[in-house]
Amino acid sequence: MNRSRVVAILRIVLAVLVVAGVTYAIATNWTEVSADLRRMSPGTIALAALVGCIPPILTVLVWRRLLADLGSPIHLAPAGGIFFVGQLGKYVPGSVWAIVAQAEMASRLHIPRRRTAVTGLLNVGLAAVCGFIVGLPSLPLLITRESTASTGWALLLVLPLLILVLWPRLLNAAIALGLKVLRREPLEHQLSGRAVVFTVVCFCLSWFCSGVSVWILARTLAPEGVDQGRLALATMSGFALAAAVSMFTVVLPAGVGLREGLLVLLLGPIISVPAAAAVVVVGRFLTILADVLFAAIGWAWARSHHLITSRAERAADRIMVPEDEAG
To answer: Which sequence ranges are marked TM in the entry (predicted)?
Structure first.
């Protein structure tokens, strides 16, 4: 058995263990979890869903800005069509399918696949880094599960390293090195400092909004006398940390399981494990709902402009794209 096969098997085993662990934790506490789910009012869930729609909008703005900075400015409408439809690929194990889909659709607007792929990778990587920045204050809470006294030290020790990663010159050097290793031509344009600043601000705001959505759900189930500051830290900062960590688990579609497990570890000591499980179940549902909603809007635009139609459909409408012309 070769090495790649062994790695593939280990990835599958890891994915199964993580998802099984979270499922078992919810199943064994289902009586309490279901009771907590019923305590969430429709208004609370609707408000959390509304706040949860802000991050996808900020993310597509970042993706569009990065793509423009690398040499392909496009209108927000096609950007949304390409980005949101392609984003559904993150639910397929492997983590690259979203980028592949986006590159394929963008090529029909004469945008080089290489440029779209680099944009997609930057989008994911910078989102993860910003997630760690927003999530750092909750790291001591995850480790100790009780004290937040070390929050300042965590920021002091790790934040400079994350800022270094966001240095435009270093980012451009990393892109050039990656393309060289892959034996691809270098990009015609480099990232500007303004684009990086825009990206960091939008992503940090995006993670904060996601955390606020979780906080809206969690505060409904919080017992009387709960430490509100600790709850806010565990949700608004903890969600970003949990999600950023789960983004590196390429075997888990969209980080399913790991993100929820980490959130339960953060919230369990504050609002109880069953209540935390109820929060992560509803939170994951709202995330998927937002992804599907925006993908449906993007799909309608992309299909009407023949970014995802078949060659036969395009021929019937007398529409030609580069691949049809080449064929």
So the answer is: 43-63, 117-143, 155-179, 191-218, 230-254, 261-279, 285-302
CA angle, 219 then 145 then 166, to 5°: 85
Largest CA distance in the chain: 69
Check whether 95 has a pLDDT greater than 80. no
Cβ-contact 321, 314 below 8 angstroms: yes
Residue 156's pLDDT is what? 66
Asked whether residue 13 is domain-assigned, the answer is: no
Number of domains in the chain: 1
| 11 lies in some domain | no
Q: Is the pTM of this model over 0.90?
A: no
Question: In the block, which residue shows the tokens 């789960």?
Answer: 246
Q: Is residue 295 situated within a structural domain?
A: yes
For 175, the domain range is 47-309
pLDDT tens track for 112-136 = 988 898 899 889 889 988 998 888 8
- CA gyration radius, the chain: 21
| Residue 185 falls inside a structural domain | yes
